[in-house]
Amino acid sequence: MERVRTFLAKFPYDIRVIEFDESTKTAEDAARTVGVEVGQIAKTILFITRDGPVLVTTSGDVKVSQSKLKKHLGVKGKLKLPDAALTQEITGFPLGGVCPFALKTQVPVLIDVSMQRFPVVYIAAGGPKAVAAVNVEQLLEITDGELCDLSG
Fold first, then answer.
1. What is the pLDDT of residues 41-65, one digit of tens each?
2. 3-state helix, strand, coil in the chain (%, to 5)
3. Are 107 and 89 in contact (CB under 8 A)?
4. Distance (Å, rounded) from C-alpha 74 to C-alpha 12?
């Protein structure tokens, strides 16, 4: 979480890491803990393609369409979801705490349009009991991400 705080300090936004006693590991847990609807929780999923890893951040109430993701990336073949160890190795974060920035390894970040429904979304902030509130425009800038429609 300290890496996330340090990274956020580089930007002109007042985005703070909020820590809880309760779990924010899943979108449902986070929504209950934060007190918002599940869609307002941004889940970040690491996919492994044959061309390398990619992160997708989407609303907690939608699924990522693998066919849309493959088409967007221009890749064929299966997309794999890495295990906890590989996720931590690539992102530097544990499952349930994967933040779409302050990554250990540079990975392309795709931001799903589903989050534009909300003025603020809550992203995992490096641990299973921490979030940060951002808007989609801030998230795009902070991640150097690309806005696209990947909802299934």
1. 999 999 999 889 999 999 999 999 9
2. 30, 25, 45
3. no
4. 34
